[in-house]
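Lecture notes, part 5. Sequence design as translation. It can be helpful to think of inverse folding as translation between two languages: the language of shapes and the language of residues. The source text, in structure tokens, appears below.
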């Protein structure tokens, strides 16, 4: 009932976005919770064609992501999006995607790589649907908001009342971790962090508008901020320190950039300082994984001060083994998506465990593993150019630039100890695409409280209305 109330408040809000935004919202929500195949297995529903072979994956999830991608392509065609123009606006990202596709050639598991590459393309299609919605900033906020409306309260419910779904325990059965309807405590922390930052930004940008301060949906926003921060804290025994620190960084960026709104030059310098700090921390962590710092060093003291061991909860051990695998092809990598495939292509120390890793807990290391040094150069250049573009936008479209810089830097920071880069089914990769893609704006004739959205030139046909189910 509370979720229905939240969506009722969303309708009153009257965000000027099209009903076609339902499909990216659905993609983002599933990416931020659990795959459909995993939900079905949890509910005891057998998967059709499921063999347990990690190289085959889930037919349910393939169908889901494939259908959404086709719907997204249909929407983009109706909006008369010029593909050549989009590619021309994003030359570096285009070259990076082409390189990922070519790397399938030297993958030991080309079929798996191809499936994961198609999913990555689907995420790009969904991001383009959001960014061509006519009001890109409102569309991005709406996708995050609507996903949070369902994810946040349901996570609290399953943590409290359905603990076989909502929590997990450590190997000793002592410390409990909140995971909600996500796959882990870290993923839940990322979702809560994203939700809290989005609702705080929503309240701040409309703070001086009297009509927005008196509407009932304002109370819903504050309720979701409180619930998100509650989930962000996590259980007493297993706090997601990464999510808390990233949230603090995002909030600091948001507040300071807001204070510097009248001085875009100073705001750009501050964001550059934070960006340099993130890259500096990345360099320290990578150096530590190659040549560990002593416990009494400054870096070692900082780590232990935050209650973590020098292995960063086992991460440096993972990276040590990963580097050995990557050393076989340091320039080009093992091929896009050709690693972390259950036990088929996993690092040796997982063989005697009851679980298998699905990531290297560092997005930059994972990129190096899959695509080699060439892929890492592509990624860092893409980060830098996207950052510079958003910096320049501070003078013209301040709120959009502040929003983009906040999430670009936050995601860059998250990937030092977690991995979301190049993963088509990860919610943070989807947000990363929203911050770095450059697209020509399509002005849609959108009526705020209407379920019918006209195309840029003509009204939607009856068939297209079926594809534009209200979100």
């Amino acid at each position: 009932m509370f979720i229905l109330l939240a969506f009722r408040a969303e309708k009153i809000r009257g965000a000027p976005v099209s009903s076609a935004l339902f499909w990216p919202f659905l993609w983002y929500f599933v990416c931020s919770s659990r795959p459909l195949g995993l939900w079905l297995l949890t509910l005891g529903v057998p998967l059709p064609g499921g063999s347990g072979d990690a190289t085959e994956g889930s037919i349910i999830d393939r169908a889901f992501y494939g259908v959404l991608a086709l719907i997204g392509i249909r929407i983009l065609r109706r909006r008369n999006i010029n593909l050549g123009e989009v590619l021309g606006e994003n030359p570096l990202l285009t070259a990076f995607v082409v390189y990922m596709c070519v790397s399938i050639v030297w993958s030991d598991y080309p079929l798996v790589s191809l499936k994961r590459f198609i999913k990555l393309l689907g995420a790009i299609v969904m991001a383009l649907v959001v960014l061509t919605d006519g009001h890109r900033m409102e569309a991005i906020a709406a996708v995050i908001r609507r996903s949070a409306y369902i994810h946040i309260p349901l996570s609290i419910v399953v943590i409290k009342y359905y603990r076989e779904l909502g929590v997990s325990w450590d190997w000793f059965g002592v410390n409990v971790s909140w995971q909600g309807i996500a796959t882990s405590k870290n993923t839940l922390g990322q979702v809560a962090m994203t939700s809290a930052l989005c609702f705080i930004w929503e309240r701040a940008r409309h703070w001086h508008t009297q009509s927005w301060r008196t509407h009932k949906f304002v109370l819903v926003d504050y309720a979701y901020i409180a619930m998100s921060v509650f989930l962000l804290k996590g259980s007493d025994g297993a706090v997601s320190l990464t999510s808390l620190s990233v949230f603090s960084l995002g909030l600091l960026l948001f507040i300071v950039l807001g204070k510097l709104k009248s001085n875009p030059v100073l705001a750009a310098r501050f964001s550059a300082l934070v960006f340099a700090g993130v890259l500096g921390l990345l360099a320290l962590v990578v150096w530590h994984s190659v040549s560990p710092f002593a416990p009494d060093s400054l870096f070692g003291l900082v780590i232990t001060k935050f209650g973590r061991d020098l292995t960063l909860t086992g991460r440096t051990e993972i990276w040590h083994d990963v580097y050995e695998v990557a050393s076989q092809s340091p320039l080009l990598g093992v091929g896009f998506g050709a690693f972390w495939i259950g036990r088929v292509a996993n690092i040796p120390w997982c063989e005697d465990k009851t679980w298998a890793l699905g990531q290297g807990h560092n997005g930059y290391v994972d990129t190096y593993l899959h695509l080699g040094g060439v892929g890492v150069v592509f990624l860092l250049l893409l980060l830098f150019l996207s950052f510079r573009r958003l910096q320049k936008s501070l003078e013209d479209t301040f709120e959009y630039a502040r929003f983009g810089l906040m999430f670009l830097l936050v995601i860059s920071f998250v990937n030092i100890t977690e991995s979301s880069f190049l993963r088509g089914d990860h919610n943070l990769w989807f947000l990363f695409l929203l911050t770095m893609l450059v697209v020509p704006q399509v002005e849609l004739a959108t009526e705020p409280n209407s379920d019918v959205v006209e195309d840029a030139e003509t009204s939607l046909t009856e068939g297209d209305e079926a594809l534009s189910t209200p979100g």
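The translated text above is only one of many valid answers, since several sequences can fold into similar shapes. The first strand starts at residue 167 and ends at 169.
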